[in-house]
Design a protein that fits this description.
This protein is an alpha/beta fold. About 50% of the residues lie in helices and about 10% in strands. The protein has 15 helices and eight strands. The protein has a six-stranded parallel β-sheet, sandwiched between helices. The longest helix is centred in the middle third of the chain and has 22 residues. Bound molecules: 5,6-dihydroxy-NADP and zinc ion (ZN).
Amino acid sequence: MNDFVFQNPTRFYFGRKQLQHITDELMGAKTVMIAYGGGSVKKTGLYDRIAALVEGVGARVVEFGGIMGNPTWTKVEEGAALANDEGVDFILGVGGGSVMDCTKAISLAARQDNAWKKHWVRFEPIIVDPIPHGFVVTCAGTGSEGNGGAVITNEKTHVKTGKDYPELNARFAILEPELTFTVPREQTIAGSYDILSHLMEIYFSEPVGDALADNLLEAAMRTVIKSLEVVLEKPEDYQARANLMWASSLAENRILKCGKNGLFQVHMIEHQIGAYTDCVHGFGLAAIQAPYYRFIKVTSALMTWQLRRFAINVWGINPEGKADIDIAIEGIDALQAWTEKVGAYRTLGELGVTEDMIPKIARSTTILPMKFCKLNSDDIEILLEQCL
Ligand code: NZQ
Ligand code: ZN
C-alpha cells in the first residue's frame, strides 16, 4: 500500500429531505449565485424550492444558468464576471458534474487573474481564497461534489483538463437520491458508466495486491453494475438510486484512492476525445475502456494478474482449469458485453470522432507514469483507430 494523506473538508448530507440544510449552511451569506445547467432544475421545480430557501436566510439570489455539458472556459469567465459584478459571496451549484465543475472554476476565476493559464495549464498552487461554494447534486456520475477537480474545456485550444485542488472542495454537498429519479435514461447510463470507470481506473492503478482499497473497489463495482440494471427497469427504485449516488461520491472523494496511485489514463484519453467532439463523458469512456484493457494486458504480468482478479471477483468468471491470461480476457469480454447490454457502448465514430482527429487526440493526451503499462502517443493512436 502506498503512503497517503487523506483530507476531505466537504460535509455530505445524504438521504431524504436533506435540502433544508441549505438554510444552516448559508446563514450569513448576502448574495448567493445559483448556478445550473440547461433547465431541468426549472422543470422539476427544484430551482424555486432552493431559491426560496436562500431568500429565507435573507440572501439575494443571482441566477446563472445555461451551463452546458463539458463546460467551457468562456462560460467560466462569464460566471466569474457576473459573480464579481454582483458581489456574490457564495455559489450554489445545482446539477451534475458540469454544473459542479463550472461552479468550482468560477469560484476561483472570480478571484484569480489568468486562472486558466495558472491552474489549468501550469497547475500552480492556489494562493487566493476562492468564493465559497456548495452543491445540490441532481445526478450520479462524476462524484465532483466530493473533490476539488474542475474539468473544463478550453474550446480555443481543444484542451479539456482539471486538477484536484483541495481548496476547491465544496463546503457541503446535498445528496438526495430522489432528486435523481428524473434523470433521463441516457444520462443515467452514462453517469453509471462513469462511476464504474472511476472505480476501474483506481483498481487498475498501482500498486496491485490484496490491499483494502482493491477489496472495497470490487464491492463498489459489483454494486454499480447491479444498481444500474435495477434502475433501468425501475427508475424510481430508491435503494438502487441511493447506491449509485453514494458510489458516485465515494469513487471520487479520494477515500478509495488511499494507498493506490489512482492514475486515470482512460480518462486522460476520453477528455481529449471530449475536447474534439463534445461527446457525453460516460459514453466516451465506454467506447474505449474495455478496448484499452485488451490493448495493454499483453504488456504486463501484473496487469494480467489484476485483470484475472477482476474477472473472478467482479464478473463471477469461473477460473477452474483456465490459464491466467484466458481468465483475464474473459473479464474484459464480460465488461464489454455488459457495456453493450446496458446501452452504454458507442463507437468513437458514433461519438463524432473522425480519422483526421485521431492523431490530434492522441498527441494531446496526457500520458501518466504507470509502471505496468507504458503507453506512448502512437499506442493511443492505434487504440483509437481500433475503437473508431
Ligand atoms: O442541464 P440540465 O437541463 O440540468 O440537464 C442535465 C444534463 O443534461 C441532466 N440532469 C441532471 N440531473 C437531472 C437531469 N435531468 C433531469 N432530472 C435531473 N435530476 O443530465 C445532464 C447532466 O449533464 P452533465 O452535468 O454534463 O453530466 P455529468 O454529471 O456526467 O458531468 C460530466 C462532466 O463532468 C466531468 C466530465 O468530464 C464532464 O465535463 N467530470 C468531472 C469530474 C470531477 N470533477 O471529479 C470527474 C469525471 O471523471 C469527469 O471528468
Ligand atoms: Zn469520469
